[in-house]
Design goal:
5 helices, binds magnesium ion, 263 residues, 14 strands, Creatine Amidinohydrolase, alpha+beta, four-stranded antiparallel sheet
Length: 263
């Protein structure tokens, strides 16, 4: 069933979400050539647990071994952090973070550059991020879930990028994954009606090539079948009377700490 959350409950989810927003604002200070995805995972886990009562919601979820998912280059999602996996200049990596705090969850992902990256990689990241914000704008009451997919498709149109269709966004609340599913493709006016109090994790995933995916032999890591570079941006968004409310934004202090190098 689709849950409708009260404004007070949405405020509680926003507390979990702010931890993720802050983490994704400061984690670039740790992303550099030579760092391992295992080290980044440890940084993320310690950052989350430094907030009273907060835990990494993905750790152990369906048996996932990491605190966060870290997916490098062609990897779309569900990359397993590892002390053996070093990233290098020109790589891109997506960090997907879930936090549970006082029984409420939030979920957000961002793709980052390692050092200088190619113009092609920059463009893929830019279009994916823009498609997320287009989708967020569509998360208003009276719209339907299909309108979110339409917004993603509109932002991606003409680029030749593949929208990953076999993975979807989702409702979120007491659990990380709740109803409804939120596909990144759709038809206007189709799918469940968006109502005040719905909270959705909206998460476009784009490949520079085919949208067809496969799962690697580790049972987790998802890549496009043609091995193309991939990007992933996600926010947890509440449908409110005032419009879409992004619950996973960084607080200004975190952004300032990153810019001043004190994070
Ligand atoms: Mg996520
Ligand atoms: Mg999600």
């Amino acid at each position: 069933m689709v849950h409708l959350r009260t404004p007070e409950e949405i405020d509680l989810m926003a507390r979990a979400g702010a931890i993720i927003g802050d983490l994704l604002a400061v984690v670039p200070t740790r992303i550099r050539p030579g760092v391992t995805t295992g080290e980044l995972d440890t940084f993320c886990e310690e950052f989350i647990r430094s907030h009273d009562g907060a835990v990494p919601a993905f750790k152990g979820l369906y048996g996932f071994p990491g605190a966060v998912c870290i997916s490098v280059n062609e990897e779309v999602v569900h990359g397993i952090p590892s002390s053996e996996r070093t990233v290098g200049e020109g790589d891109i990596l997506s960090i997907d973070v879930g936090v549970r705090l006082d029984g409420w969850c939030a979920d957000s992902a961002w793709t980052f550059a390692v050092g200088e990256i190619s113009a092609e990689a920059q463009h893929l990241m830019k279009v994916t991020e823009e498609s997320l914000y287009a989708a967020v704008e569509a998360a208003v009451k009276g719209n339907h879930v299909g309108d979110i997919g339409v917004a993603v498709m509109g932002a991606v149109e003409g680029t030749g990028y593949g929208i990953i269709r076999d993975l979807v966004g989702h409702g979120i609340g007491r659990d990380v994954h709740e109803e409804p599913q939120v596909p990144n493709v759709g038809r206007a006016g189709q799918g469940p009606l968006l109502r005040e109090g719905m909270v959705l994790a909206i998460e476009p995933m784009l490949s520079a090539g085919t949208p067809a995916i496969k799962t690697l032999s580790d049972g987790w890591t998802v890549i496009p079948q043609d091995g193309s570079l991939s990007a992933h941006f996600e926010h947890t968004v509440a449908v409110t009377a005032e419009g879409p409310r992004v619950l996973t934004m960084a607080r200004a202090e975190a952004t300032e700490a990153r810019l001043s190098g004190t994070a």
